[in-house]
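Appendix B. One record, verbatim.
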Amino acid sequence: MTTFTSLGVPENYIAALAKRGITVPTEIQAAFIPAARAGENLIGEAPTGTGKTFAYLLPVMERIDPSVRTAQVLVLAPTHELAMQIATVARELAQAAELPIGVQALIGGANIKRQIESLKKKPALIVGSAPRVQELHRLGKLKLTGVKLLVLDEFDRLLGKQQLDEVRTVIRLLPPERQALLLSATAGTAAVRMAESLFAPRLIRAEETQAVYQNYYHIVPFRDKIKAVQKLTRRLPIRRGLVFVGRSFDAAHALEKLRFEGIKAVALLGQERRDQRRAALDAIRAGRAELLISTDLAARGLDIEDVDYVIHLDLPEDVRTYRHRAGRTARAGKEGAVISLVDEKEMDKLKALAARMEIELSRLPRA
């Protein structure tokens, strides 16, 4: 059996993982860690919830020399929430391993003066958004000449049209001999081609584990979808549910209506202040809220444990989006359910998605 020891992970990190209840590497960790430790440029593709963050943090943090007071690792993330999540995990890992490795999150929207003050402590691991990294470098507050490892978490988003130029600019600021590690749950063809042109990486693809979730559909008139969410929340044993919305719904209106009906709901939609988004995540994680309403963009890459229901208020646009959403539930061998709310006109689209994914759809049983 593959163990963290056989992968070459240092004992202090193995002990740190054990404190979190992690004792056996996942498939992506078993394949990715040795190659990353060997210095290869890599793409890692594995389903949501399979431990991709530790797959790169373990070999990355092992390479950090705490005695060198400069940035040595740069992790870029497509959203502020994901960057903060990664920074928290890295900080906790360093503390549990009893290593003096400084970790600093650099995201837009946060107080830049405080970030400049924090950079005076010379953190070795920087996690952030490409625009803020650029800005601090331009101001002469962030030196990148010592960076030997670049990580692109959710690289398909980072190398997409909206963020590619910013990411390219950051790459040009780094030493040419640095190693690059790219990870995502879905490595699309266009993103892989762009990655190949930038880094010439080797692709490591972990097979999907059999998630224990049921795929249901519930037929309801379009105008009654929010009311259907309200009824389902009262009817089903939902402890922690994610409700995904797209462009066709006024998500703020949905949140208002659900709260009016007494549903403990919060939202993560992208346009709120950073403190509001953090409060929403804290509420769903702590169990103070039953439902988190979110767009696909806002929820990408976030780690929210014990989600038992995923509800599509709006249908996902494609197979990749369906998998990203569904991957939020039934993690670590637990059970879960995915419920698509559809009107009669949307059934053909849902059936087509199911056929491409080779999944079985069942009508949600009546109460």
